[in-house]
Amino acid sequence: MRRLGWLPFSPPASADFSPALARLRRHSLGILAVLAAFFLSLPGANWGKYECWNYDQMGHLSLQKNGLPQHYLKPPLHTYLNQLLLLPPTSFLLEKVFRVRPSVQHDWKLLASRLLTISMFAASVWFFYTSALRGCNETQAGALALLYATSAGILSFDRFLTADTPLLFWMTAAFLSALKAAENRSTAWAIASGLLAGLATANKYNGLWACAALPAALFASIGWRCALTRPFWAGTIAMPTGFILGNPGTVLDSQRFFEDFYYNLITAPAYDGDTTSHGYLRFFSQLPDRSAGLPPFCSP
After folding, report:
1. Maximum Cα–Cα distance for the chain, whole Å?
2. CA 168, 210, 78, 74 torsion: positive or negative?
3. Averaged pLDDT for residues 117-138
4. What pLDDT shows up at residue 150?
5. What Rg, from alpha-carbon coordinates, does the chain have?
6. With contact defined as beta carbons under 8 Å apart, do 121 and 154 qualify?
7. Handedness of CA 84, 87, 89, 91 (dihedral sign)
8. Range 146-150, long-range pairs (CB < 8 A, 24+ positions)
9. What is the tens place of the pLDDT at every residue in 261-270?
10. pLDDT tier for residue 20 given thresholds of 50, 70 and 90
11. What is the dihedral of CA 99, 102, 104, 107, to 10 degrees?
12. Within 13 Å and on the Cβ side, how many CA atoms surround 149?
């Protein structure tokens, strides 16, 4: 094997990096899309002090003493991810290891939570790319992933602690698992898809649409007979299970949950399909008039 001069050591004679390097080259556009999603989301990640402006910002919502959320106007999964899994070890590191002053600890906790959200967005890009490979070649899937990763409609808010970006993570993971379940007729992947779809709903209520991924994938694979298969029923049962795991208040605090859910259902504005605020076509159409993206001294 040819010696790699840029390595500070000589790899063993049996080491062969060519398969790994070939995979990296083959998926280079997908990897580029993931990196673009992460690094383009970083500017502004240290902006602001608080994340409690509206009910969509669930990341730092405090929990009651019994571990249940303050309300169910939005489901609490992203709150649990932060309050139970991320913030306790972050607080320990800040207080015991790095001895950060209490006055600035909140800034670091906020940054950690935003980095979690950004990482979930980058992971969703990889799930999207891997899913697209089922119907496209690497170049086509990579181009689609790059469009998704650089979408202005996502990059404008994905660094904040709303439930929207984590919803993309759970939904794309559920979709990818559904495709794998249909490809392999796998009960395990079907259960994974059902659990992830339930967690998507426990992240934000309109994540319920992810529950359609598994039956749709199975139907496209084997037709109506999918309703008689074990993956179909196992995945279907896993969906409410995932929702309860991500939102245990549906069982432990059911009256308040249904009251808040019904209130949110009645008062939430209807989506009218308006998509004119963001997008590449609108961006390029405004370049001649607004000199968007040019330095200030170049603007008329």
Report:
1. 69
2. positive
3. 96
4. 92
5. 22
6. yes
7. negative
8. 146/29, 146/32, 146/33, 146/36, 147/280, 148/33, 148/37, 149/33, 149/34, 149/36, 149/37, 149/40, 149/122, 149/125, 150/36, 150/37, 150/40
9. 888 888 876 6
10. confident
11. 100
12. 29
The CB-side HSE value for 119 (13 A sphere, CA atoms) comes to 7
33 forms beta bridges with none
The domain spans of the chain are 28-44+66-267
What does the block give as tokens for 154? 């996502």
Per-residue pLDDT at 162 exceeds 90: no
Q: How many other CB atoms are found less than 10 A from the CB of residue 255?
A: 7
Tokens of 84: 């139970």
Q: How far apart are CA 11 and CA 189, in angstroms?
A: 37
- CA distances 17 to 9, 102, 138, 148, 194, Å, are 14, 47, 21, 31, 37
Closest CA relative to residue 41, chosen from 170, 155, 208, 203: 155
What DSSP line would sit under the chain, residue for residue? ----TTSSSPPPTT---HHHHHHHHHTHHHHHHHHHHHHHH-TTTT--S---SSTTB-TTPPBPTTS-BS--SS-SHHHHIIIIIIHHHHHHIIIIIS---HHHHHHHHHHHHHHHHHHHHHHHHHHHHHHHTTTS-HHHHHHHHHHHHT-HHHHTTTTSSBSHHHHHHHHHHHHHHHHHHHHHT-HHHHHHHHHHHHHHHHH-GGGGGGGGHHHHHHHHHHGGGGGGSHHHHHHHHHHHHHHHHH-THHHHTHHHHHHHHHHHHHHSPPP-----SSSHHHHHHTHHHH-TTS-GGG--
Please report how many Cα atoms fall inside a 13 Å half-sphere around the Cα of residue 250, on the Cβ side.
Answer: 20
- Cα–Cα distance, 227 to 232 (Å, whole number): 6
